[in-house]
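Box 4.2: Ligand-aware structure prediction
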Amino acid sequence: MSGSDDSGAKPWGGRFTEPTDAFVEAFTASQTFDRRLYRHDIMGSRAHARMLTAVGVLTDAELDAILEGLDGVEGDIDAGRFEWNDALEDVHMHIEHALTQRIGDAGKKLHTGRSRNDQVATDLRLYLRDAIDGLATELRRLCEGLLEQAGRHPDAVMPGFTHLQTAQPVTFGHHMLAWFEMLLRDADRLMDCRRRTNVMPLGAAALAGTPYPIDRNMTADLLGFERPAENSLDAVSDRDFAIEFCHWGATTMMHLSRMSEELVLWTSPAFDFVDLPDRFCTGSSIMPQKKNPDVPELVRGKTGRVNGHLMGLLTLMKSQPLAYNKDNQEDKEPLFDTVDTLAGSLRAFADMIPAIEIKPENMADRARKGFATATDLADYLVRKGVAFRDAHEIVGKTVRKAIDENCDIAELSLYDLQQFSSAIEQDVYAVLTLEGSAASRDHLGGTAPDQVRAATKRGHNRLNQTLPL
Ligand code: ARG
């Protein structure tokens, strides 16, 4: 079996004595997925044609025909009128073929001084730059939602955990700001990745550059690239910008999965710390009482595929000799899926976070039951002159007594407390409250409500610096 008809007249046909095997044609084609790059491919072609005209390789009339033709092709694809088939392999050949059908010989000149190798690397960078800008907007919205929650609840006390065991009281706002810090670092990493993505391969041609008198600075300016890539071999071959992006994606999903896990715990009846609005949850077809936190669970689950894409791209690039190899056609699907997964997950979280309602009584109750202020009692004893190790021992016995009495240590009588240490006086009750405990951690980075208020304010400025509007 041979490849198909008229559109099957390959651009490299001259050197071949038989048509491409039909299965090989389908196997090697990328048009089913790389058609997603069509706008960026056309954008790159417009700039390339303008530059070729400026340096005298194309005439003004040819440029006009090419620009008009490209508009027509783009309009056809936008409107879903465009015909795609494996014979034309990829998005680049489809667009060039359609252009030539529309405008004739001028269309055949567009590829002068260019190769699909620098073309695809350019398309991908243009695509990713736009994707990054879209993702930055969602990430910004999510960070704002976290600051909003922190601003709403600087003083609601909940148990802070280590080993998922009640450790010390923390404020809910402080917890929201911990999530904010993780995501602000992700925002910073995303902008860093954008900077290295925004470099232009065009002009590298197949691998060695081109004999035409091209002006790469002009093309780069037209496309909004920061600069042309320095080395033609590197420009067509490396996909480290895509790997870096997927690393950003994997790290951001890892953070979202941690937030997800806590939301799943907090919404379970065993914790009952927060309520997610019904619109972010689903029910059970068999258990009428259920309200499941599907959005956080799904985001937690989607973390796996993004990790997979990072491993996939690292492995794709590993050991590839310079310069371009067909292996690199495999870069697109993992990259696209990473963009889509992050776009969906960030959007879901940005919508959901500001809508979370907290249950402060349940949180405080649980902090008390877990003896969250035990460390505060030890610190109190130290202030009264007891050595920390002895204080630890005294508090341990006090907690034992409270467990036996089934009450909080703050509910033990002064007489009971003094059985463990004569250093304990009436003023102990001030430090045994959750509010007193939280308020006492009153330094930069601490959980005190005043610190949470100040950190929230700084957070807005830091967000504006990291992701300027
Ligand atoms: N479809 C190819 C890709 O995605 C475009 C570049 C093809 N270049 C080549 N010399 N076969 O990588």
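In the box above, the bound molecule is arginine. Residues 1-5 have pLDDT under 50 and may be disordered.
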